[in-house]
Amino acid sequence: MSLFTGWRAALRIARRDAMRSKGRSALVVAMIAVPVLGVTALDVTYRSVTPTTAEELTASMGSADALFSDEQIGPIQQLPDAESYDRVDENAPVDEDGPSIDITTTFPKGSRAISIQSVPAGITTGYGIATTEIYEFRTSDELARGKIDLVRGAFPHGKDEVVATEPFLKSTGLHVGSTTAVRNFGKKYTITGVVEQPDQLSAEALYADPGAVIAPWQARADHDKKVLPPNVGSKTWLVKGPEGVGVTWPDVMAANESGVLVKSRQVVLDPPPDFDVPLARKGVEAYPDTSGEVSAALVTVVAMAVLEIVLLAGPAFAVGARRSRRQLGLLGTCGGDRRHVRAVVLGGGLVLGGVGAAAGVAVGLAATAVFRPMIEEWSGNRFVSLALNPMELLVIAAIGLITGLLAAFAPAIVASRQSVLESLTGRRGVRRSSRVLPVLGACVLAIGCAVAVYGGTAGDSTLVAAGSVTAELGLLACIPVIVGFLGRLGSRLPLSPRLALRDAARNRGRTAPAVAAVMAAVAGSVAIATYMSSSMAEAEYNYVPSLNEGTVVISAFDDKTAARLPQARAAVERNMAVTGGHADFRHVWAGSDCNVYGDAENACGSVELVKPAGKAASCPLTGKGAKELAARLTADEHKKLMRSPACLVGIMTSGVFNAGEHGIVVADEAMLSTYVKLDDPAAAKALAAGTPVLLNPVFAKNGEVTIKAVHHYSDKDKQGRKLHPGKARTTTDRLKVYVAPEKYAATPGISMILPQRTAERLGLHTRASGSVYAVTHAPTDTEQQRTYGAIEQAGGGIWTQSESGPGRTDNSMLLILTLFAGIVTLGAAAITTGLAKADAEADLNTLSAVGAPPGVRRKLSGFQCVVVALTGVVLGTLAGLVPAVALRLVDLRQALQTMRMEPTESAYTPIVLPWTTLGLLVVGVPLLAGLLATALTRSRLALARRAG
């Protein structure tokens, strides 16, 4: 029999066997198809989301040939991609106040152009007032296509119409047909349509035709001095070159001579040689391409998918080979040898792998097309088209096919080694487990952990990766022994869990790969989740708040606007989630009334706290010998020192209270409960009696502080000198204070609360400056717009600020990782339970024969699921902590190096476990797997055909 004939017969047998065992075949096909589906969808999504150079040019300049912008620094030289440029003569003076050039004179002859210019403005919304960016850009022009596209409605055609982006409408409560007014000068506009920037779907903006906003605003400002002129951005131009010519490299260099930067589509796609580029001849290079990093990541994802398939589908082929052992034995009686048996089993892998690969690629393409709108919204940019790379899709399908063969390879070897007699009689034989493999695995595990930790302490990420992979491989080799050990733990357990543990231990060839698959998936998820949680904790620690969390401050900066504070308070109380009352505060200064802001040039006086002499009052990380000290500190010691009152001076200063560098605010006891959160009757009593409350004890000595007032009079302010004649002078006063506990030294913006009557007794000036509210949550966009609108109706000039803590990192990645690991865990547990059910049918029949209740069958399936899921999750968690801890050691080394160069830089690099993720994986997923297996398993056996 020829080789081709033998394989044709093997494939025919394998196909018939697959059709006969449809359930098991569908399971194997699904295991192969699902990872192929995921990799296919990932490949198509990545190719579609990642724009080509041509697509990037369209997003930046629409259908124009070039983008022109005046850099206003004189003649320049640029690279063809316009990402780098430099002045021709770096020593030449730059006349910033001189007249700007007419940029239209630099366009190639026969060109057509439209301009883009933006201005920030306060606009009325459905809730109140919001600030947004308004672009003067003729969006209806064909040159804008690809940069701005119409979603619905119509483009603006006139000076009283605008279009808006969808995110803007959602945040403001407006819609097509709504009217909005620019509060800065009062003109109203009708929203005629919705547009989008294909490369920035989350952008919030308004678009109007040129001359619709900026020119009338400027005219109103020139006519009415109460209206501030618009703060417009620089103007850029989209240029369409002569038909069939475009904008060439000589055109670009000619524009450069006038200081104009040009990004030409033709030049970027077909750049000139370096010897024709003056800046390139100077050695300036373009930014490097980082696509190799993405390719490495894709290779890693594909390798993990292959490993998952082999680990999960391998036991299915093994069970299939055992269930077909009589058929394979008959093959031997008919003259077939071992290679024919191997061919039949491998043929099953080829058949099922081919079907799974084809199905995975097809469903992956279909899923990407169906979920395209969702993917576009998540990525923030539109696909120009579904980017299909036939070669990559073919490779993915081939990988699925080859993986099916790899999964069937070990079962084929085992099946070919069985004797014909064993195959016909159904005896499995008894083989002892290898004693060398677990010992070798334990050694590899220890070596891998040591290499990963060493790589972390040495700052070598490559060693960390190598050590982590080695440790995981070592743990994989130990899994059969661990599973065997579990069988010994069930001697005192009830029947169902005892049988589940013993079945897992007796059939390690089926259980160990499934546990390994779960471990591999969970390890990666736990590693990334732990690293992300630790990084978020580090970011939260290093964050310097401007206010105490859960507070809102309204501020006025002069007497005129301070008169509107009652209306502003009413607006806040009506529109925000305030709790309790408010605390009023006043600004304090020394000297004349010429400038109460403390501006360095025109300041009329300042008030500050004087540190007492001695080392206790100075931060050792800012003075002489700071670097030497930092070199001796550990991260925890540095953290403690940076949180000491002496080192907090100046760091927690906030401009919200206009309290200067040392944070002196005039207020009463309401400030303690509303903002400082100092619940101490003694402190409130001290303020009521005229005694200041000191929050930072570093300024205190023997319960007293020294206040230094510098009374300076500006020569530019005649009124100030008339009110307070005399030379500048400095006064100091010592005051008895109430010293708060050290933890309140970290209160943002305030170091000392000074009673009003004490300030007056010291000859200081005060005026109403604002109020503080405690809120249950950070103000939403709607609440802010309503509040701002009410304040503007009362005359405006009042600022509202809130503190919601550090930027909340999007936890969607942690959720995705948890879902991925959970799905793999459930799938592996379900596969193992299904295989166990098919493999142990005789044992289940025996249980029924000896009188076991029907519920035992359901409970056994549930506990079999729990055993696989729980074992894999626990081992995966331990394996995932190795790279996470090692990578944090790398971060720690880098942070310590930075701290020793800049002693005030934090070296705090905590290791924070993602307890929510771990809880879901270790408790939730195994429990869910067990419950699903219990619910989906039939209690009673199906009637079997009589043998013989």
Automatic annotation (TrEMBL):
Keyword annotations from UniProtKB, A to Z: Cell membrane, Membrane, Transmembrane, Transmembrane helix
Cellular component, GO annotation: plasma membrane
Membrane topology annotation: Multi-pass membrane protein
Membrane-crossing segments per the record: 296-320, 341-371, 391-415, 436-457, 463-490, 511-532, 813-836, 865-887, 907-936
Signal peptide: none
Domain of life: Bacteria
Coiled coil: none
Recorded GO MF terms: transmembrane transporter activity
Stored InterPro entries: ABC3_permease_C, Macrolide_Exporter_MacB
Pfam families from the UniProt entry: FtsX
Residue intervals of the ABC3 transporter permease C-terminal domain: 302-419
Location(s) in or outside the cell: Cell membrane
Record keyword Acetylation present: no
Family classification: Belongs to the ABC-4 integral membrane protein family.
Protein name: Putative ABC transport system permease protein
Organism of this sequence: Streptomyces atratus
